[in-house]
Amino acid sequence: MDPMFDLHAVTRQFPNGVVALQGINLHIDAGDFVVLLGPSGCGKSTLLRLIAGLDRPDRGRIEWHSTPPTPGEIGFVFQDPTLMPWASAAQNASLPLRLRGLDPGPANTMLARLGLAGFENTRPAQLSGGMRMRVSIARALAARPRLLLMDEPFAALDEFTRHKLQDELRALATETCCTTIFVTHSIYEAAFLAKRVILMSPRPGRVAAEHKFPVPVANRIDPSFADRVRTLTDAALHASAS
Question: Count of CB atoms within 10 A of residue 110's CB?
Answer without folding.
Answer: 24
